[in-house]
Structures
1.
Amino acid sequence: MIAMKVHHLYSGGKDSSLAAWILSQLGYEVELVTVTFGLLDNWRYARETAERLGFPHRVLELPREILEKAGEIAISDGHPNNAIQFIHERALEALASLPEVERVSDGTRRDDRVPLLDLPKARSLEDRFGVAYIRPLLGLGYKTIRELTGRLFVVEIRESEELQKADYEVELRHLLRERGIDPLEIFPKSHYQSRVLGWREDVDRP
Amino acid sequence: MIAMKVHHLYSGGKDSSLAAWILSQLGYEVELVTVTFGLLDNWRYARETAERLGFPHRVLELPREILEKAGEIAISDGHPNNAIQFIHERALEALASLPEVERVSDGTRRDDRVPLLDLPKARSLEDRFGVAYIRPLLGLGYKTIRELTGRLFVVEIRESEELQKADYEVELRHLLRERGIDPLEIFPKSHYQSRVLGWREDVDRP
C-alpha cells in the first residue's frame, strides 16, 4: 500500500500526543510539526517529547507579525481565546500550504472551546489548500481522553506559568511581557497544562 | 490492563464498520449492537457482516412505538431527517441505559447532518446515563473516510431501496408502506447506501 503521510500540529502535550498515536494506529505515517515565532526556543520541549515517543519532528517558523497581531487581539479582548484561535488558524494554513503536505491534523477535542475550527472553517481549510483535515480527538469526551492517555503516557501536569512546553501561549505570554503587560492580567490565573514525558512501559509503541 | 468495553451502534455499513475498526485499534473491546423494532429481520445483514469482520454482535429491540412516532414525524415533515434523528437518539439512550454499558459509540461523521448529536446533546447523554460517548469518525472528512474504508473493506454500494442492510430507515420505509405511503414521497429519490461485505485480503484484522 502507498504510505499515507500526515503532518500533525504538535505541542508535546497529552492531547496532541494522543492524537499522534491514534493517527499511527490508523496506519498513517505521522510527522509532528511544532510552530514557533522565533522569540523563544520552547519548541525544543516538543522535539524532546517527539524523540522520546519516536516520531519524526519538524519546526515551522511563522511570521512574527502573526504573534504580534495575536498579542493585539489578546490585549484588546482582555482574554486570550481569540488570540489563540487566530494563531491556530494561521498555523493550520501555513502547514496546509506547504507543497508536500496532503493531510493536516491537530489535537483539538470535542470539549475544547479554543482553538477549534467550526465545520465551515474546517471545510474551507480543506477546500482552499486541497488537503484532508483530520481531528482524531474531535469525537472523544474527557473520560475517553483520560482513559487513553492514562494507558499510554507518563504525563507531567503543572501550572501554565511553570511548565516548559511548546504551546502557542508560551510565546504569546512572552510577547505580552515584552510589551510591559503581565500575562496574568489576560490569561486565567489557574490554568493547568500537561506535558508528555514518554510512553508508559507496557505500551505497544507505534 | 483492564479491558475497556464499548457498545457500538452498528448497521453493517461502511461508516459504522470503520468506526468499529478504529475503536479496536485504540484498544477497546468492541461489541456491535444493531437496533430493530421487530417489523423486519434486516438486522441479520448487520450480523452477517459482523461475523465476517469477527466482532461479537447483539440485537437490541426498541419499542415499536418509537418507530411509529418516527413515522408520524416523517409524514408530517415530508422528509425523513427528523425521524432518523429521533430514532438515533432513542437508540443511544436505550443502549446507554443498559446496566453493563459503560461506553457507547456510533459511526456518525463530521459531514453528516443526520443523525448527529450536537455538543449539548452529546454531553447530556453522557451525564444522564453515566457513560462515555465515543464518535471515532467525528473529526474525519469524506476524503479520510474514503481512504481508510478503501484500504480496509470490500464494500457494496447500491440504491437504498435495493440494498439489504440494517439501517433504521429500512424498517421506517416498511412502516410507511404499511400505512399506504410510498417511501419515495418522503425519502430522497436517489440515495446510495453502502454495505460492507468483509475485510480486504491484505488487512491486519483486529
2.
Amino acid sequence: MGKMRRKGLASMAVQTVASATTVDLGPASGLSCRECGEVFALGPIFACELCFGPLEVAYDLPTGDPEALRKQIEAGPANIWRYAPLLPVPADVAEKPNLNPGWTKLVQADNLARELGVAPGKLFVKDDSGNPTHSFKDRVVAQAIEAARAFGFTTLSCSSTGNLAGAVGAAAARAGFRSCVFIPHDLEQGKVVMAGVYGGDLVAIEGNYDDVNRFCSELIGDPLGEGWGFVNVNLRPYYGEGSKTLAYEICEQLGWVIPDQLVIPIASGSQLTKIDKGLQELIKLGLVEDKPYKIFGAQAEGCSPVSAAFKAGHDVVRPQKPNTIAKSLAIGNPADGPYVLDIARRTGGAVEDVNDELVVEAIKLLAQTEGIFAETAGGVTVGVTKKLVEAGLIDPNLTTVVLNTGDGLKTLDAVADTSQATVTIRPSLDAFRDAGLAH
Amino acid sequence: MGKMRRKGLASMAVQTVASATTVDLGPASGLSCRECGEVFALGPIFACELCFGPLEVAYDLPTGDPEALRKQIEAGPANIWRYAPLLPVPADVAEKPNLNPGWTKLVQADNLARELGVAPGKLFVKDDSGNPTHSFKDRVVAQAIEAARAFGFTTLSCSSTGNLAGAVGAAAARAGFRSCVFIPHDLEQGKVVMAGVYGGDLVAIEGNYDDVNRFCSELIGDPLGEGWGFVNVNLRPYYGEGSKTLAYEICEQLGWVIPDQLVIPIASGSQLTKIDKGLQELIKLGLVEDKPYKIFGAQAEGCSPVSAAFKAGHDVVRPQKPNTIAKSLAIGNPADGPYVLDIARRTGGAVEDVNDELVVEAIKLLAQTEGIFAETAGGVTVGVTKKLVEAGLIDPNLTTVVLNTGDGLKTLDAVADTSQATVTIRPSLDAFRDAGLAH
C-alpha cells in the first residue's frame, strides 16, 4: 500500500483502458487489486481473480496546470460533482438525476476547541449531517448509482442497519432505479420507516445483521440476484471512492491546504483509507502543497478491533463481537482494518476508542458548544479527539478536522435519558420564579 | 400593503436612522407599522404604539448598479449571509458565530412533475430540510440572533412545539447565548430530546401550546423576563425577515428569475408575506426583471382558516381549533392571515387545503419520486400543488416552485403505518424466491 506501489498501479491501469471502452466512468481507467496489483477492466467486480484481494478504482488523472483544474473545480456545482474530474463518473454527471450530496459545512469549532484545550481557530468539524439523507452514505451511494448506470443495472440493493438503507432508497427513487434493501427483522421502528418511505422493496430478514450479509452474498452468486447492483458488494470499488470527496472538500474549504490532523471514524475502515487516497491524489495533482498530516482512527470501545490491534502493535485485526450504542460503526471484522493500521502508523497518527458513556457526553458537548447534533458516530470522533488531545497525541496548536458522519435525529435513543425538560411547571409567573431559572 | 405605500414607508424610515445610531443592523433603517405606517427606531419592539399593528423592518437598501450587487452576492458565502446587504444584520455578520443556514437545494423535480402532470423542467422543490437543524426555522432564528446581539440580550427564548425549539437551542449554543425554551408538557419524546440536547433550559408547561404562548406573553411583560429576547415575540420583526432569503435564493438559483408560481405553506402566514416582500425587493433593486408571479398558500384541512376565508371571499380570517397531523402549521388564528389573503388575490394565486390522508400520500409521493423525505408541512405543499394543477389554477407549463420547509425525520409518525417492510423472510434463497421480489 506504499506510495510507490500505488503509483506503479496507476500507470499499469492506463494500459487496460482499451478493454473498457464501452464504459464511460470519466478518469477511471480500471480496477486494481490492492494486494497483488493485478489490473482489471472496469466492471461490477470487487475481488481479485488471482488473490481475492479487494479491488479499487485506478485513474488516468488529469495532468497539466493545477491552477486551471483548481479554477474548474471552484466554478463547479456546490456538491461532490465539482470533483467529477477526479471521480469514477462521466463528465456530464451533474446533469443526471442524483441526490447531489456533498459540499457540507466545515464548521470552525472555537467553542468546542475551548472545551478540549485546542487553540482558537484550529479545530474544525466536517459536518456530513447536512447531506440529503443526513449521513455521509449519500456520497458513496451517489458514486454507486453512476456505476450502476454505466453497467446497465436497473435494481439497486444493499444490506443495512440504517443509514445506508435510507441513502440507497432515496437515491434510487430519484435516479429512476428500483431498489431492494435487506435489513434485520428487529430493526428499530424509526429506521424501518426511514428506509421504507422511499417506496422501494424493503426485505426484513429473520436474523441479525451478519445473517443479512450472508444472505446477500448468497443472492449475488445466484441467478435470483443477477443484474442487481449491490452498492456495498459488487459496486463497492466505485461506492468507496465517494469518501475521497471528504478529503477534497476539507482541503478546498481550508483554502486548498491539507489539515495537520484528521479524526475519522472506523466502521469497515474504508472511509479512512479513501480519505488518505484523496489527500495523496490532491498532492499528486499539485492542488495542495505536499506536507505531513496525521490520520487518527476512532472506534467505540464496544467495537474496537482496529484500536486494539493498533495498541498491541499488530498488523492483523482480530474480529470482535460488537456491543456499543454506536451501531453505524459496529463492524466487528472490518475489511479495511489492516490498511487503516498502516495509514495511522505511516502518518504518525493513532487509533483510539471511547466507551459509550463518553460517546453520549461527546454528542452533548458538540451540541452544546456548536449547535451540531451528531449521530453516535460523531460522539465517537469527538470523544476520541478529547482523549487524544489529553494524551498529547493531537497537537492542540495545529489544525485538526473532526468528522461527523451522521445526524443525531437518527440515534435519538443515545441521548434521550439525559436530554429532558429542565423542569415542569404550571403556566404561572410564580411557578416560574420558584423554578429559579430567571436571572 | 400595496406597493405604493411600502415605498412611502421606506423613504420615511430613512429619516429615523439618526435615533438608532447605536444599533448596527446594516441596511435596516427602522421599524414601520404595517397598518398605520408609523415609523420607529430599531429596537426590541413588535407592536405599533399607536394602533397595535405589527411592525416590520424598513430598509435603506443599496442603490446603484444592480450588476455590481449581483456579483457581490454571487461571490458571498454559500449561506444566507450572501444576502447580508438586504438583511437586518451588520456587514460583518458572516464572521460571527451563527449556524449559517440557507443556500439549500432547489431541486428540479422532473419525476414529481410527471406524476402531477407538470411539464418537464418546470417543477422545482426548494428543500429546506438541508438547513442545520433541518427546518426553515434556522433562517429566521439566525436573524433573531443578530438582533439579540445588537440589543445586548444574553438569553434567547421562545415558545415552541418542535422545530423552533431545536433551532433556537442549537443557534444559541453556537452563538454563545443562554437559551430558555418553553414547550407543552405533553410534547412527543423525540421532540423533547431534539430540543433538550443543546443544553439550554427547557421548561415544560402544564397545558397546551396556547397556554404556553399566554404564559410567554405574561413573562415578557414581567421583570422576570426582562432582558430576554423572545425570537418570535419581541424579536419577531427581525426574525420574520429571515424568510425573505427563501425568495432571494429561489430567484438566484433559477438564474436571477422570479418563478411564475410559488406554493408556500401557511402557519402564521409570515413566511408567505416575507417571500412576497423579498421578491418585491429584488425587483426594486433591479436584480430580477419585474414580471407577474402568482403566490399560492397551502394549509391542512384540519387547520385551514386562511383557505376558508379565501374561498368565502372574506378579508378577515375566522380562527379555527386545529386538528391535523401537520402540527408545524397548526396555528388556528394566523397573525398574518389577512396579508396572505391580500397577496394571494393581488398576484392571482389562491389558498387551498388538503386533508391528512392526502398529506401522507404527498409525503410518500415526494419521497418516492425525488428521494426527498419531507415533514408533514411538505406533504401539505405538495398535496396542494397536486390539487391546484388538477383544478387548473396552477399552469403546468409555467415554472412552479414548491417549498418543503422541514424534515420527515421529525414527523416519522405520519408515515409509520404505511412505510413498513414489504415482507419478512427467513435468510434463504428459497424464501426470497417465494416472496416474488426477484425479477
